[in-house]
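Entry 12.
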Amino acid sequence: MADPVKPALVMPGSRYAAELGKGAADMRFPAELEREYQRFYLAERRSHVRFFNAVVCALVVLALLASLISGHENTGVLQYLRLGAIAAAYLLMAWIARSQYFERAYLKTAYLASLFIALVAGVEVATWIAAGVGEMFALLTLHSLGLYFLAGILFRGALQANLVMVSSLSASLIALDVPPTKVAYLTGILAGAAAIGGLAFRHQGIRFRRTFLEHGLVSEMAARDGLTGLKNRRAFDEHLRRSWQQALRDRRSLAVMMIDVDHFKAFNDRYGHQAGDDALQRVAAVVDGFAQRPLDLAARYGGEELAVILFDITRDHADKIAEQLRAAVQALGIEHVDSRESVAVTVSVGVAIVRPKLDRSPEGVVQLADEALYAAKKDGRNRVRVFESEYAALSTGKFKRE
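Predicted 3D structure (tokens):
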């Protein structure tokens, strides 16, 4: 039986494919991908998180109220304070789970709150056990499983909170002069529950991360051009709209480069369409190398025309990048005897650089780049033209060809 094709070979350059190609999803990805995974994770777990925090918070508050009303002789001020602190921590988690800060703040807040709750809960339950109320121990084992599967915390955070809880219980029982055999017994049970829950949660976490990677890979494949491997026209349009809005909000510049392979029809007529496809793939690989920053993007705009979006860049830098790109394509040395400008395949590059305004649209910068490309081709091809100030007089939708 043939070996399955690795995702990294199917989608070279894909972050999702690279992680899937390792054979099993790691429990932590590189920083940028990890942040994306955490957003995915929270979106999928939000209903569980809300339920868990609401129920546990209600139970803790009820326990606090019951202790206050009953006035049990073994209940002291410190125990009221501990229950109140636990309730406050869960109230904070419950509030963030239902607020606009959920995606941005929940994981960190829940992690810190869980460590605090684990520490205080271990002391509280140990106090009850020392007072002869051993039934309270069951709450710790339930809380251990809740930390893994319902609290919405990632594996490492849940594991650390469980270790804190086991240590807190053990140290508190020893400090309260509970017999060593009982300390060992209760600590062993809680540690065992934490270990079993941790193993199950780790397995679930790996499957969840793999689902995220497969989902991302499918979405990425849908946004890729099948021939060149660059993003397709739809992905270009969507990214341009997002970049436009971000540049408008942050008052940054935005550049679009339109790149056209010179005399490509003549190349296909001379060498055949398979050679044309190979040439376009090689040119696309060069273009992709000039769009490596997180907010940049390279795409196949249509036919032999490629495009690049560059975020927050000066005119001089954009001009320099475009010239380097043009030279790099020519340096490939792909034979083109029917070209009037060179014995090798070349490209013409039109660059538009603008600062987005409310009374303008993303379509305008594409049109300006298209007009710059037309100027480069009109001036003799295999060259770069950059338009910037022309944007002020541009009437979107009307191509200003002479």
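Annotation: The chain has two domains: 7-221, 233-393. Residues 233-393 form a domain with the Alpha-Beta Plaits fold (CATH 3.30.70.270).
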